[in-house]
Amino acid sequence: MAFKKFLQPSAMQGNLLKFTMARGAISGFFSVDNVRVGDLLVKDQFDGILGLGFREISAGDAVPVWYNMVEQGLVKEEVFSFWLNRNADEEEGGEIVFGGDDPNHYRGKHMNVSVTKKGFLDILSYHS
């Protein structure tokens, strides 16, 4: 799924949510809606700010969209992957795949690494 088709909520309503992150403040509407992410329809999702972090750090105890994708059986595997295009001149800047990966964007095998701390996506770096 390309980034430009990423999030399409059907309604914007509810309370304004504001919080500060490491690099500044963020705000949006905190409400429940059905949220379309690419071809997936995530039901009863808190929308406004699409977070992929852990539930332990979510604002207002909102369930992050990834957890609802898994719980609603919308993904094949409990994995999401990113591809970021290094060529800034190309139209497609990157891709996120929920439920797997896109083998068109890598060669060889993936190496799984453990998340070292539930919070932000902290991982140990491995060099082969």
TrEMBL record:
<protein>
    <submittedName>
        <fullName>Aspartic proteinase A1</fullName>
    </submittedName>
</protein>
